[in-house]
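fyi for ur records
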Amino acid sequence: MSLKKRDEDGGSLLCMDLEKSRVLQEARAFHATTTDITKCCQILTRILLLINQGESIATKEATETFFAMTKLFQSKDVTLRRMLYLAIKDMAKLSEDVIIVTSSLTKDMTGREDVYRGAAIRALCRITDGTMLHSIERYMKQAIVDRNPSVASAALVSSVHLLQSGNDLVKRWVNEAQEAVSSDNPMVQYHALSLLYHIRKHDRLAISKLVAKYARSSLRSPYALCLLIRIAAKVLQEFEPGSEPGTERLLHDFLETCLKHRNEMVLYEAARALASMPNADARDIAPSVSVLQLLLTSPKPTLRFAAVKTLNRVAMQHPVAVTTCNLDLENMITDSNRSIATLAITTLLKTGREGNIDRLMKQISSFMGEITDEFKVVVVEAIRSVWTQCSVFFVCVLRCLSSVHCSFD
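which gave:
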């Protein structure tokens, strides 16, 4: 039997007989002298399924099962150990005295087995409170600057979660986070920048300096660049016009520079940020509209969808600025993805000529039953826009609204 077939059969069997009392009773197998790896992995999977399906487990039952799970630390099997870490993370919030596994997790976190270290950090930080954090602070700082990307990312993401839980001790790890930003790994760089942002997000001046610092440097990670673009856009939106002209100019220049980036994700994020500026006029958003127009012809459906959705929003405030994209939007009406086609038509309704409105209304009505309720709302809003601008299309608008109403039924 192939591995794929065996996994499919095993997966279907795991979902059977998910009775809470039976599953918790099966956890007694963890106490066996000889650990059955496959059986224990299946039991842990069933426990995780129960928890994630919302099954209520009493504190006493959860604590007994949690203590039984600690016996599995004796096994060196990688798969079982990783399943154990996942189970500890979910069971920790239901059980008492979970600190019993602290020493085992700390040992795995500081050991030589890299396959254990990242998952052990995540599990340890889930059960750590403010009083225990001091005892692992040194290990966390070392993990943040670790050469192994999976370990460093695990430590950085766990640090963000600890900070969000109110552990202010994390704010002292700025130097390590700044060192991690210079990592060659894209995800480590992204997670490090995220931690720095969360440490400083309540200090507006510190955030401005953070963005200005990394806007001048060349971040290699597209994920980190996208995050920096979002932070820069947020800072610009919070500025009072003319209050800090030097910083404003620097951030605007940074966003405009990102419009020339080679990565499509960065291109889109920068275009969306500039097009969403509250006080921007048609001339200000022209470069971002040009980039979004370029993305409309992308072979990737996700990029086409993102671009047309953003143009749809821009057309509500600046319909004239989006008219340059009408030809490309016309070509998207026949897109096989109905969500993309719907957004293209509703954008054209906001920007198109009066002579095209009747044809566009008929095209919308033809596939109204194939789109989700979310996009039906988009259609209704576009029709309302047409009605306020061109009341002569009263009959056409009523016909289209009738088809929308029928599709909801």
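The first helix runs from residue 3 to 14. thats all i got for now
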